[in-house]
Amino acid sequence: MMGTLLFSLRILLQISIPLIADIHFDYRLAIAAASAGADGLRINPGNIGSVRKIQEIVACAKSFQIPIRIGVNAGSLEKDIIKKYNGVNAQAMVESAVRHIEMLRSMDFHELKVSIKASDVHRTLEAYRLLSQETDLPLHVGVTEAGSLYSGIVKSSLGIGMLLYEGIGDTLRVSLTRDPVEEIRTGYEILKALNIRRRGPEIISCPTCGRCNINLFDIVEQVEKALLSSTLDIKIAIMGCVVNGPGEAREADVGVAGGDGVGVLFRHGKVVKRFPQEKLVTVLLDEISRIPSQEQAEGSTPKTT
Ligand code: SF4
Asked: How far is the CA of 217 from the centre of ligand 1 (A)?
């Protein structure tokens, strides 16, 4: 337990965001993490072992005044529920969640949040839709074990995106077999695409066609990389040709397009500068750095918070 305590402390000393301890099986780890200063606990009551152990976690969360997320997972439902439903389905997952909500409420604990994840998008959607009819508690949404980068992003975007679009979900987790940095990035992209939260510029780029005679893939990647930690709230266009690029991306605050050796810089669809094509990236980044902060704050896209 000392290891968990020290590990939690080491993390807490290096971050300024809430730390949630996600604990399976050993209730003492939850207590150690809470004692070290974790801001919340996630448990799957079904695998903690006994009501007494759950009571101990609840008593600890109460004393530290931290919330608990009940994290139901399709892969670890209680045996009696699986038997009742003849397997794992959305109804079974909801019954497990409701059972645990009632259990913690019977212990007079109400600082709750719930997740009910499956690795299957259909089942995840159905489970969350059903659960949202059963409870007003905050829901943490996600598609668990979504897979590798491509399939994981697609599954998470569909699952999380559809739920959020329907108004279901208060926090989210993208689960990828990748560096967690990609999970955070994907989560922000989902929020950005739904206009729920903006963080950083939105890059619009064309799919390229026969008119494109520059390496647009590479240019977009360079710009994306350079602006990875940017918090500017603007729309940026990177287009493959000067014939259609500025017009097609007229809603962008700023953009560049390639041509026959000559690149153009445009603002809101109007060309403001021509320059040697090989300078597309540097000219664009330079222009972005000059955008007044007022314009950055206003952006061109409506925000929903
Ligand atoms: S902007 Fe130009 S290169 Fe890009 S898709 Fe449109 S026509 Fe093709």
From this structure: 13
- Minimal CA–CA distance to 137: which of 156, 121, 115, 161? 115
Q: Are 163 and 132 in contact (CB under 8 A)?
A: no
Ligand 1, residue 209: give the atom nearest the CA: 8
Query: Hey, what's the torsion of the CAs at 280, 218, 243, 301, to 10 degrees?
Result: -80
Q: Is the Cβ atom of 61 under 6 angstroms away from ligand 1?
A: no
CATH of range 2-193; options 3.20.20.20, 2.60.120.10, 3.20.20.210, 3.30.930.10: 3.20.20.20
Residue 239 C-alpha to ligand 1 middle, in angstroms?
6
Domain layout of the chain by residue ranges: 2-193, 202-298
**Ligand 1 atom closest to Cα of residue 206:** 4
CB distance 220 to ligand 1 below 6 Å: no
Q: What is the CATH number of domain 202-298?
A: 3.30.413.10
Q: What is the largest CA-CA distance in the chain?
A: 74
From first to last of the 305 residues of the chain, give the pLDDT tens digit.
667 667 777 888 898 899 999 999 999 999 999 999 999 999 987 788 889 999 999 999 999 999 999 999 988 898 999 999 999 999 999 999 999 999 999 999 999 999 999 999 999 999 999 999 999 999 999 999 888 999 999 999 999 999 999 999 999 999 999 999 999 999 999 999 999 987 789 999 999 999 998 999 999 999 999 998 888 889 999 999 998 888 888 899 999 999 888 999 999 989 999 999 999 999 999 999 988 654 554 544 433 33
What radius of gyration do the chain's Cα atoms show?
A: 24
